[in-house]
Specification:
Blueprint (H helix, E strand, L loop, with lengths): L1 E3 L3 H11 L5 H19 L6 E6 L4 E6 L5 E7 L6 H5 L6 E2 L1 E6 L6 E7 L8 E5 L2 E2 L3 H12 L4 E9 L1 H10 L4 E7 L2 E2 L5 E2 L5 H6 L3
Helix pairs in contact: 1-2
Bound molecules: 1-O-pyrophosphono-5-O-phosphono-alpha-D-ribofuranose (PRP) and uracil.
């Protein structure tokens, strides 16, 4: 399943993100804010438990989630830009890291790091990467999580190309995708168009 956000404010913020004149500071803030909203959407099926609560007026039964059931896994580097936003939604979630970069010629993902929380196989894992282009990086990261025994995975991205969504659905049809905007496609060097350029470079100001 893929869920594409459809809200005028998200469209407004995506337009600012795309603008090449947007500063590094504003770019980071927007990635963070949109990630928070994507995380709310992805958690709309979260299991809740009853909890007795005493308000200043009376006792009542409230609904709570178990934050220990969740782990966020950003794909380095650009996925790190989404972490502070999603942590505002589930502050006690565990965090793992998967390091991948695309070979610029072949566009194939190259793995360089993986550190996942203990007992990750028992958690719902929310994988984070702002850009879903060919889908190679996301598919590879999902395979790494599954090799560690993870059964429940959701993928959050800000901008997706149809090619990337198709690839995840073919290889990992059990993974739900939450995306803020579906773009037109990929250009001849594998960049999303209209896209926003290289997300990692724009978050970290490296170019
Ligand atoms: C970008 C992006 C994704 C990947 C998407 O990372 O953050 O991880 O490309 O492309 P794909 O869907 O074709 O695999 P990049 O390789 O630029 O690394 P970085 O985050 O370290 O800049
Ligand atoms: N990675 C990015 O950061 N941007 C793209 O358009 C494609 C892959």
């Amino acid at each position: 399943m893929e869920k594409i956000l459809d809200h005028p404010l998200i469209k407004h913020k995506i337009s600012i993100l795309r603008d090449e004149k947007t500063s590094t500071k504003e770019f980071r803030e927007l990635i963070s804010e949109i990630s928070m909203i994507l995380c709310y959407e992805a958690l709309s099926d979260a299991k809740t438990y009853d909890k007795k609560i005493k308000t200043p007026i009376k006792e009542t039964i409230g609904k709570v989630i178990d934050e220990n059931n969740y782990a966020f896994v950003p794909i380095l580097r650009a996925g790190m830009g989404m972490v502070d936003g999603v942590l505002r939604v589930i502050p006690n979630a565990r965090i793992g890291h998967i390091g991948l970069y695309r070979n610029e010629e072949t566009l194939e993902p190259v793995k360089y790091y993986c550190k996942l929380p203990k007992n990750i196989k028992d958690k719902e894992v929310i994988l984070l990467d702002p850009m879903l282009a060919t889908g190679g990086s996301a598919v590879s990261a999902i395979s790494m999580l599954k090799q560690d025994g993870v059964k429940r995975i959701k993928f959050l991205c800000i901008i997706a190309a149809p090619e990337g969504i198709k690839k995840i659905k073919e290889v990992h049809p059990d993974v739900d995708i939450y995306c803020a905007n579906l773009d037109e496609g990929l250009n001849d060097i594998g960049y999303i168009f209209p896209g926003l350029g290289d997300a990692g470079d724009r978050i970290y100001g490296t170019k």
